[in-house]
Amino acid sequence: MELEVSVVVESYTHGEGSGLERVGKALRAAVAMVEEHGAGEVLVADSSTDPALEELIARELPRVRRVDAAGLGYDEAKLRAAEQARGTYVLYLDGDCIPSEGWLGHHLAALRSGRAATGGFTRYDGGFLGAIGSVLDFGFLLPVGPRVLDCYAFNNSGFRRDVMLGAPPPDGAMRCRCYAHAQRLRRRGSPVWMVPEARVRHERQPFFRERYRQGFDMVAARWVDPELPGARLLRFGPLAAPIFYGHVVRDWERLVGSRRDLELTWWQVGPAAVLAALSRLVDLTGMVRALVPGGRESGVGMEASPADARP
User: Fold this and answer.
1) Would you tell me the crossing angle of helices 207-224 and 178-187 to the nearest 10 degrees?
2) How many CA atoms lie within 13 A of 97 on its CB side?
3) pLDDT digits (tens, 9 = 90+) for 218-257
4) Which of 38, 43, 145, 249 lies 20 to 30 Å from 276 when distance is taken between CA atoms?
5) What are the φ and ψ backbone dihedral angles of 43, each rounded to 5 degrees?
């Protein structure tokens, strides 16, 4: 039976340390939206292989269909779910993200109107510190408004299923290749459009781990797709790190321009800009590690926001 929409919730983040309670909240929210819609399904791309998650689904969420993604990476697990989905459209919601009211309807309205792919706005939990983290990790989604996205957040996105299967995220060492994927879709004439009303709250991440990975991924994105801006700088090795850092450190522009979406008061903008710049120093260490000889083999990053770096 063909359905209109398949909502995919992943468990990869649960395997990385996000609590089972958070995954349960995300799944319950997805089930409630699909039940209200009436012509959809909820899948969990389960790469965590946590027996407690399987028990939760069997006990409380019988409408959720589990897709075995054991051993697969973040992008690969989501693609596996798209292959097994029955919906015309596939919406992605991470297990550590809680959607706002109307999230499903906002994505679907844009997809029904002819958009091939959609991306919403993701903000971290919390007040002041959550806002700073949101600028650092999801600043590429600012300003919030209808436009073509250079990079989308895979934790809050939608696709025509045939588009996702016909042009999946490219292979590569990075955990998430959403930037390279958005660029690939754009070159194919199927860009990712922002849906401002489709919002999720993302669980806060460990600070040093996330900052280092973001810096590393800013360089790694250019390995995945050499056509991206700034790829030519890789040949300069660590000498290129200040150029990447000098671009992303301008977070104050986004803090000022998107204060309301970040839920900041005017008096908080100045301190937030200072803390954001200091936080980016940890990103710099990740950039340097990726740029030194052997950096490509040293490890992989997390969810990149390389659209922030356009040297």
Assistant:
1) 30
2) 28
3) 888 777 778 777 788 888 888 888 888 877 778 889 999 9
4) 145
5) -120, 145
Residues 181, 187: Cα–Cα separation, whole Å = 10
Q: Is 172 exposed, middle or buried (0-12, 13-18, 19+ CB in 10 A)?
A: middle
CB-based contact 223:296 (threshold 8 Å): yes
**Which residue, 308, 107, 95, 81, is CA-closest to 192?**
107
Tokens of 120: 């919403």
Buried b (16+ CB within 10 A) or exposed e, 20-59: bebbbbbbebbbebbeeeeebbbbbbbbbeeeebeebbee
φ and ψ of 64, to 5 deg: -85, 130
Domain(s) labelled CATH 3.90.550.10 in the chain stretch across: 3-202
Residue 21 half-sphere exposure, CB side, CA atoms within 13 Å?
1
Q: What is the pLDDT of residue 311?
A: 39
Q: At the fourth CATH level, which superfamily is domain 3-202?
A: Spore Coat Polysaccharide Biosynthesis Protein SpsA; Chain A (3.90.550.10)
How many other C-beta atoms are found inside a 10 Å radius of the C-beta of residue 239?
11
- Helix, strand, coil proportions of the chain in percent (round to 5)? 50, 20, 30
Cis before 143 (ω within 30): yes
Nearest to 309 by CA among 225, 193, 217: 217
Judged by DSSP in three states, 58 sits in helix
| Band (295; pLDDT cuts 50, 70, 90) | low
Report yes or no: 120 and 200 within 8 Å, Cβ to Cβ: yes
**Lowest model confidence (mean pLDDT) among 70-74, 78-82, 259-263, 292-296:** 292-296
